[in-house]
Amino acid sequence: xxxxxLPKIKKKNKRLGRGPGSGRGKTSGRxxxxxxxxxxxxxxxxxxxxxxxxFRRIPKRGFTHLKRRKERCQIVNLKDINDKFNxxxxxxxxxxxxxxxxxxxTGLVKILGKGKIEKxxxxxxxxxxxxxxxxxxxxxxxxxxxxx
Length: 148
Prior knowledge:
- The chain is of the alpha/beta class.
- The protein contains four helices and six strands.
- It has a domain at 73-145: CATH 3.100.10.10.
- The radius of gyration is 31 Å and the shape is elongated.
């Protein structure tokens, strides 16, 4: 027997509120009164029946600085740039966005050294890896680092 030859099994739905003879009539299996009877979201995750929730009981350790944010760079490899750009063209966030190599026009852009570059291009981006810098300079290109 194989998985595509298994018989189809369809479970019947519970039919609620179909009279006293059905076994699920009147209150439809929810009991009488209270929050569990009502429709909508019952409780938040971690609700402990009115007691102090577990996550508020345990001690908090360490320090979290709310203003600290991780810088997110949009990454572009040299192999992609080599395919899309012609010699002596300017490579900056605007041109990368127009050639669909990055998703956002704003934000940091980092060039990584994966692949080859055979054209002398001038780069003006926020970050460039060591390997990429070597390859660009070897090909006769220029690098200018932008500040945000």
